[in-house]
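Throughout this review, each integer encodes one residue's backbone shape. One record appears below.

===
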Amino acid sequence: MESWQLRFDTLEALRLSSKGRLSYCSHWQEDEAVPHSRRTFSLQAALEGCVAPVELSPYCGWVLDSLRGQPAEISPSSAPRQSTPLPTRACAENIPPGSHRSSSPPSSAEPSETKENDHLSLLEVNEEVVPAGLSSKVAKVEGCIRMYEEMHRLKAKERLRQRQEEQEQMVRAAYAQASEQLKRFDELRELKRHQEFQELQEVMEKSSKEAQGQQEKLKEEHRHRAKILNLKLREAEQQRQRQEELERLRKEEGQERLRRLYSIQEELLQLNQQIDPNYRHKDLPRIDLSAYSNRGNQICGLVSGLIRTTSEKGFPTQADVASTERALQEMRGLISSMQQEITAALEEKKRKDEEEKKQKQKELEKKEQMKSQTPAPAQQSGEKQQKEGLQVKTEESIMQWYQQLQDAAEQCVAAFSEIGNCKGNTEVKKIKTNLQKAATIPVSQISSISGSKLREVFDKINNLLSGKPVQTEGQAVSVTQHPQGLEFVCYKLAEKFVRHGEGEVSFHHDSAFPIAVVLSGIWELHPRVGDIFLAHLHKKCPYSVPFYPARKEGTSVEEYQRMLGYEVHDSKVEEQDHFLKRMSGMIRLYAAIIQLRWPYGNKQGAHPHGLSYGWRWLAQMLNLEPLADVTAMLLLDFLEVCGNALMKQYGIQFWKTMFFIQKSYIPRIEAVTSSGQMGCLSRLKNFVQKCLRAEEIPLPKGILTPSFWRT
């Protein structure tokens, strides 16, 4: 036992020494088979183990197992028998070098099964390595070493367990401390939140109380103001009721006076219209009715201006009513004076007519006999041509008719002088613009699209001339808006028809027929429009009379060109082709008018300007000396449009005229036509020859058929 204790003391001393830090290896004995490099590496590893910290041997488990299998007290003699084969790790100092070399197998005999098997396989390998014949001393030392390592391992394990328990306790303590701190932090945060909520609630309660107090103050002020406002409203309502009552009374009086003014104006307009029909007496000797018309228009204009002014201001006064009544009395006196003058003039004219009738009775009988012998105008012109030659001037009766139309147009212009010169009067200028649009826009809408559309245009123009309101650009327009409105509309409407003829018809010959049929219907219902239309047509195209204006002394070249129908702008006369186109358009329109009637009008009455005027125009044209380029073009256009209607109306007399044109008149045109102006003459010659050969005048292109009016 003492030896055993001594061994342990020795091992403890070795452990504490620097040598005891060396790792034990059973291959430290010198062996020739081991390479030098490997021995050097093993020594280096052993030296590193001196510096490395203390660690347990991998064989401690085997030592413990061996110790557990031995009795409590181990004798030296039993150690070799009970001990298992030694591992490869042994102390090189206790083993002789020679025995080690003789008993240890080659290093290559170490099996690879040490890495794959468990602890028992390691022991089996060690049994092969360690020779069975080792001495008991070596076995004892080896066993002591392994027992020491096992004890050291157990102590280390115990210390490790204790260290782990301490660490776990420290962790649990730290966790407990952290949990407590977290709880305290949560409690502190909850406390702060509660305090903030309490403060916010106090602030809100305080604000609510202040708001309630302010609201109560506002309510009190509102109630006070409401009382004041109610008092003011009651006073205002009472005042308004008093004012409404006064205004109602004033309006009733004003409306009564305004109705009186309107009735006076209506009577004035009716009296003024009585003057217009008396224009037919302007050919009476020593009588001039234009003064009555002008004065009547002035009176109507004054009354209309007075009514318009009072309407803008509000209601007329009693003085305004008195002024209009005086104007009415003056108009009545004017009508009475005019009628007396007309009656006296008619009686004088009747007396003179009776005297002249007796003197001309014999002359008329002679003329009737001559007419029975020469029924056709062309035949008369042919006889005159053979005896006396063609005329240079138009017949006196036609020129008188021409002058009457021009005078009528001038009187119409004078009748709407207030509307014509309204630069300073905005209201009259507005009425003028609306009336002009109402008169001209429907004419621009005339087309041959359908009969229903054409009838709508006719109704619009007819309603305007009849005094009914019509819609123009969203406004209601009527000629009754101004006393001179009817004259102005008639003039502008006739002017627009002529412009449409020289513009639209000159480029589109077919458009002459829808324009002509509308104008014919308007002419039948409103003859004044037809007269002014003829005046405009004769002024724009003197060849529609027919009339060749003569140049008078003192007349400039530009003025004379205008008289001939040319347009002159800035001393520049229009080109001949453009001039001929315009003349052609107006003659075609005139030829269409004399043969067409409005299909929905009064068919019992005569045409206001029928085929007899066309026959007269043709006869007078053939009695005049021809003009180069113009005469041929006018005859061709007139015959193309109106030739078929004249053929049906006059029969054999018309064919005599056509024969006269071919045999006598075309050669005269050739005599005055240069070689560069033969175009129109050639077309006229071909047209006449073709018609005489076929003994038929073709219908004009674009004529309105009965089926057109059903569209």
